[in-house]
């Protein structure tokens, strides 16, 4: 169970992107800390940014990519997710490049509950149907 990443992301609960020309300094600082120097505006998808930042803060493996589907190649796949495991969904098309990534919180009433950024433009917990699930990944701590 990856409680460390869950706690780091929960500490950002409610963090919102700013519409228009302005940017939320908190999101922009996450990008800077993770080395995403090409990330210029908080209206660019930031779910993977938040996961990379939380992994960076806690010493877990990172995808080092802003693409949500990049997480499908990090850690180990699991069919029995635990709280804090990475969960990846497809967007637009199951075969396309777009996705969404967050931390698995639990499953209830047929929905997968995910703690992530860029859900309604903020850090929140949202339930997703299983039909868009691409996979669960269990991260490991990086060697010291």
Quick one: CATH superfamily? endopeptidase domain like (from Nostoc punctiforme)
Class based on secondary structure composition and strand pairing: alpha+beta
Uncertain runs with pLDDT below 50, 5 residues or more?
none
- Note the beta-strand portion: 25-35%
What does this structure look like?
By secondary structure, this protein is α+β, with helices and mostly antiparallel strands. It has a single domain, classed as Alpha-Beta Complex (endopeptidase fold (from Nostoc punctiforme)). Helices cover 21% and strands 28% of the residues. It has helices spanning 3-10, 25-34, 47-58; strands at 76-78, 86-90, 99-108, 111-119, 122-129, 133-138. A 6-stranded antiparallel β-sheet has the order 1-6-2-3-4-5. Strand 2 and strand 3 (99-108) form a beta hairpin. The chain is globular, with a radius of gyration of 14 Å.
Q: SSE layout and pairings?
A:
Blueprint: H1 3-10, H2 25-34, H3 47-58, E1 76-78, E2 86-90, E3 99-108, E4 111-119, E5 122-129, E6 133-138
Antiparallel strand pairs: 1-6, 2-3, 2-6, 3-4, 4-5
Helix pairs in contact: 1-3, 2-3
């Amino acid at each position: 169970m990856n409680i460390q990443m869950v706690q780091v992301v929960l500490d950002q609960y409610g963090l919102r992107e700013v519409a228009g020309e302005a940017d939320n300094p908190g999101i922009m600082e996450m990008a800077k800390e993770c080395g995403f120097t090409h990330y210029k505006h908080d209206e660019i998808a930031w779910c993977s940014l938040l996961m990379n930042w939380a992994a960076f803060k806690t010493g877990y493996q990172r995808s080092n990519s802003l693409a949500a589907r990049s997480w499908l190649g990090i850690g180990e796949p699991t069919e029995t997710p635990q709280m804090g495991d990475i969960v990846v969904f497809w967007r637009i098309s199951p075969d396309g490049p777009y996705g969404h990534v967050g931390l698995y919180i639990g499953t209830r009433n047929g929905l997968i509950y995910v703690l992530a950024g860029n859900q309604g433009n903020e850090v929140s917990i949202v339930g997703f149907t299983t039909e868009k699930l691409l996979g669960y990944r269990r991260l490991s701590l990086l060697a010291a």
